[in-house]
Amino acid sequence: MKRHLFLNWVKAILLSASAVILNFSGLAQIVAFDLTSNGNASAGLPDNLGCVMSTSGITSSGYSGTNGQTTYSWNAVGTDCWRTTAFTTAGYVSLTGSFQMKSATNLGPRDFKVQYSLNGSSWTDVETGSVIGSPNGLTNSLVTYNFSLPSVCDNKATVYVRWVLNSLIRLDGGALSTGSGYNSSLKGVSIAGNPFAAPSTQASNVSIISVTPTTIKIGCTNGNGNNRIIVINNTNSFTDPVDDYYPAANATYSGSGEQVIFNGSTSSLTVTVPSSTNEYWFRVYEFNKMDNLTRYITSSASYNPKQCRLETIHSPTSANIKLVTSTLGATITTPTTGTILERGVFWSTESGVDETANLYSVASNSGGVFTIDDVPVERGATIYFKAFVTNESGTILSEEASFSNFPVFTGTGNWESAARWNVQEVPGMNGDATYGSADDSPIINGTCTLTAENTVNNLTINNGSGRLLNINPGVSLTVNGTLDNNNGQGGLVLKSDATGTGSLMHSSDNVDATVQRYISGTSDLEAKKYHLVSVPINSDTYLSEVWLYSYLFTYLEASDTWFAWDVPTTNILNTKEGAMVYYPNYVGGTTSRTYNISGQLNNGPYNPTITTTGNGYNLIPNPYPSAIDWNMVTTTNVGTSIWIFNPDTKSYGAYVQNSGSGTNDVTSMIPVGQAFFVKASGSGLTFGNGIRLHNHKAFMKSQQAVADEFHLKAVGGQGSDELMIRLHNEATLNHDDLFDATKFYSDLRVPQISSFTESNEDLLSINTVPFTTGVVTIPVRFDLSTAGEVTFIGSGFESFGDVSVRLEDSKENRLVKLEEAPVYSFQHETGDDPMRFKLHFVSTVGIDNPGGVQGFGAYATNRKLYLQYPEGQNSGFASLFDVQGREVSRYRLTGSGSDAFSIPASNGVYVVRFSDKSDAAFKIIVR
């Protein structure tokens, strides 16, 4: 360790030969040489009085009281020197030195340095003051210099110091002549140090850190010694240690008498005792140690010595266990002395609880049995804990106990019943409900029925009779971590009825379960109440096990036909294909049947069976026990449209990916147990958990209005059908695969409504056209094999803004403004032209209406003139004028409020004027 010099040089006036030794205030003289009459040591420790200052490689010219020893013939750098014989520093530290030195006139040697050695042969520069003199070296006058010796010289039997030539440069800067007679002088060499001493500050604040029945962990605040011993006794009686005492320590106490239990440089240890509740005293002694020397401070200090008389604490208890709290306690037996200051518990999720664990305590001065309510603990874990009590002596811990606060359901009842859970709270997360947390890991040990949405981290269903979880229809459960069903296919049931099916989102493989599928039926075999169904398990299923009492069909893509299965049968149904089921009310005249599909639930990546040997249409399943979102599916080699048969409307609905809605209640949400059609050009369709979500509906449900989507529903015959017209900037008037959906026909006894574009006659259920500021005419096809009244119902036009929707009936020669009269009924005959209807989408932006008369309007498209006026104007007429003001044609109004007439005029700009409203004039363009 580096030693620092005094801030000021020691200055001495050499008055006589007896007064040349330089003294350091507060330091002891180790060895000194005045060099005024000889080279012998003139002062210092008794063992050093025989030391001599000698020379090497140089010649001494004598000693004097004025200059000390003078020498010449300096010529060997690094070897010519003054040097001491060996001296001892035993028992001393912090060694410093002082001397005076000069060179005669300007021709003497200029540069020297001080070195030390522990063996007389290997030399090292001193750390401070090694280079002698000013930047220009020595002067020709005596100057006092100081230096320090490093700590390696402390307490040594032999130390050497020398003053060695460091260059061949004279005082005047010239070269030192070999054998030069110019001399240098050394005088008043003194080396001093501090006696190795005891610390000045004693250790204090002895404290009991922790206690077990047979151990006490003790600590203290260190003093300024570099070591300390800790002594134990069963009474307050200690023998002070003496210098050079260095005892062995034993951390196992016999139970009586004085014993050193620690010897070292740290400040804590754990001592083993017969019983930690006995009375013990501890005392710490600071000491300094160097080699074989020890120096003790034996004074006492604050809480040193320290008495240890602890309470007895035992029988830790837990009660009222909840998800994140519990009532914990223990029993304290109070000793005859001491005051209780605090009590509580340490707890951890790992065994081996000590004072570093989680702490919960209360200030208290009473013993006996105690409990602490609502101690906060970690959610869903096994909690290990020890009770503790603190008195003026320290802290003692009880034996370790444990409990688990995993929520466990027992008995029979609803999940949402807190009384059925051992933690007295409902686990999981359900919005703002007073539930636990999504971090919970519940365990099912009874018959549990989930009746409200919930999310948990892990879920375990234990094996055993009566242990199962029912997920009610319309209820969803999300298991973010591990789902472990140990009770087989009957241990987890997704219930189903007319309102829908229970929904499960999970990420564990090979989970056994039963998924129910509600099927509505009818005894009318011609009613065609079909259901497209899927099986959400990962193994093939026997038909006799699942679809007994129903007609079952699978779709053959190659021939565009349905294959009818015999029932019952042991044939295996491919679960990677969808199927169609019809229930004919065979069993007891029931109007519905709930089927149980049992096996291991699908999870993760899934590839449905795809074939393209025929028309490319494939009936594929939703493979999961939750809904899937078609908008989130990557449609590799598959079109963007899906088709699902609606057993209530008895017609197919369609949906186009990433549109707002579909027809006949089909949306992007494909529910549990639902199969659907896609149009494929090759294999490669892959599903994954990322497309799964909770969406509860009874297979389909009504949808909300979406902007820029117009729906025209046809109701009549034995059901209904729907056409949707969309406006989209990127669409064209052709058949766009990204925006249009082909029409799927069902039984013609059900109304079938579709559309097509003039440039492409493909029939469409969804027809998407671009926005326009003019008029777009959409041909509508209507098919129905039976005569009778049919009703068209329009909806969604409120989202079209400045676009008016007009329905043209060419048979009745009527034009209906649907946003004003959205319901239009007509009589259908079997021989009617299926193309009798058109839809006109008319932009009201920019229509020239100088008269501004409300209720009147006119526009032209496809060489037909469409007129609108207040209903009841049955005596009026309208005239068509060219730009010169000549009447080209006159039309008698029917009084129905809207009429359509052929335009005989050539292309150009015309004006329409109503006869009884001269201010109602409209500019039209005929093409």
Short description:
The chain has 927 residues and is mainly β.
SSE order and pairing:
Blueprint: E1 28-33, E2 43-44, E3 53-56, E4 59-64, E5 68-72, E6 81-84, E7 92-103, E8 112-117, E9 124-125, E10 143-148, E11 160-165, E12 184-195, E13 204-212, E14 215-221, E15 227-233, E16 259-264, E17 268-272, E18 280-290, E19 293-296, E20 306-308, E21 312-319, E22 325-333, E23 340-348, E24 358-363, E25 368-376, E26 382-391, E27 395-397, E28 401-404, E29 408-409, E30 412-414, E31 443-444, E32 447-450, E33 454-456, E34 459-461, E35 468-471, E36 476-479, E37 483-485, E38 492-494, E39 496-497, E40 500-501, E41 503-505, E42 512-520, E43 531-533, E44 541-542, H1 543-546, E45 551-556, E46 561-565, E47 572-573, E48 579-582, E49 592-600, E50 617-621, E51 627-629, E52 641-646, E53 651-656, E54 669-670, E55 675-679, E56 692-693, E57 709-716, E58 719-727, E59 741-742, E60 752-757, E61 760-769, E62 775-783, E63 788-795, E64 803-809, E65 814-817, E66 823-828, E67 837-843, E68 857-861, E69 864-868, E70 877-881, E71 887-892, E72 898-902, E73 908-914, E74 917-926
Key traits:
927 residues; disordered N terminus; mainly beta
Describe what you observe in this structure.
The protein is mainly β. Helix content is 0%, strand content 44%. Strand 8 (112-117) and strand 9 form a beta hairpin. Residues 1-23, 699-703 and 846-852 have low confidence and may be disordered.
